[in-house]
Amino acid sequence: MESGVSFFLRGGARWSAAAVLAAFAAWSPPAAAQLLATDVAGVKLGATAAEVEAVLRAHDARFKFIKVFWQGPDGKATTAVAAIKAAVPTGPGDISALDFKRPDGIAVYFGLSHGRAQAIYRQVADPRGIPQEATLQGVIQKYGADLGSYPGIYVRNTDASGKATGSCGASNFGWGGPPGGADLPCGKALRVQFDPKAPGVAAGLQLWLLDHQLVFADLKVQQSQRQVAGREAARRSQDAIRGNKPTL
User: Are 124 and 204 in contact (CB under 8 A)?
Assistant: First the structure.
């Protein structure tokens, strides 16, 4: 698999606007959609762990993998996948920590209740530099118009009905861990942030893609399960001491 920003460009030392736009020609999103694509390098929101792993293994043969599993009530790992992280290592070390010099790294987080990809983080870097404006135009062609207001940061978010909105952020997670929460009024949210290197040139970028509805639904189920487990634990505790009532 070629190096570089493969969901924007593939290989080659010369990075031109024409090459970026040609790389996006394969996508034909519906004009009415508010977020025109819901994948990162082919990894789609809503995909299963098996589907995600297959895409990542095909994406880059250099990828090293970390798979994290959800814990059960007993604290032991279950067979439910919580996260899959894949990256091109920059040296002999492991890929557990974020490395901004890493050529490519993708972390995907799954819900416990539905087992679907609900948050995707990507970090890429290239020592040659990345043409920021050309790459941004590729992002816009794939996902839709930029709704942000800060230079070097692309934002496109939707509310729960799919309508574009300036709120509903997507950067409360990353390589280090999953989303810490979600907002019920929100839908899907995307953020792309460039790391400046020189005027018009980026050293790399980070991308966050989050489905608030999937995260919120999963957290709600988990909360309900914890409440049920708590009531059951309290009942067992009461049953265990029921005969210990002192004589008054």
Answer: yes
What are the pLDDT digits (tens) for 7-56? 333 233 333 334 333 433 333 333 334 789 999 999 999 999 999 999 99
How many independent structural domains does the chain possess? 1
Q: Classify strands 153-159 and 186-198 as parallel, antiparallel or unpaired.
A: antiparallel
Q: Would residue 2 count as lying in a domain?
A: no
Q: Domain for residue 26, yes or no?
A: yes
- How many other C-beta atoms lie within 10 A of the C-beta of residue 107? 25
Q: Which residue has the higher pLDDT, 21 or 231?
A: 231
Indicate the DSSP class of residue 202: E
Q: Give residue 46's Cα distance to chain centre.
A: 11
Phi-psi region of 79 (alpha: psi -120 to 50; beta: other; left: phi over 0): alpha
Neighbours of 226 (CB within 10 A): 11
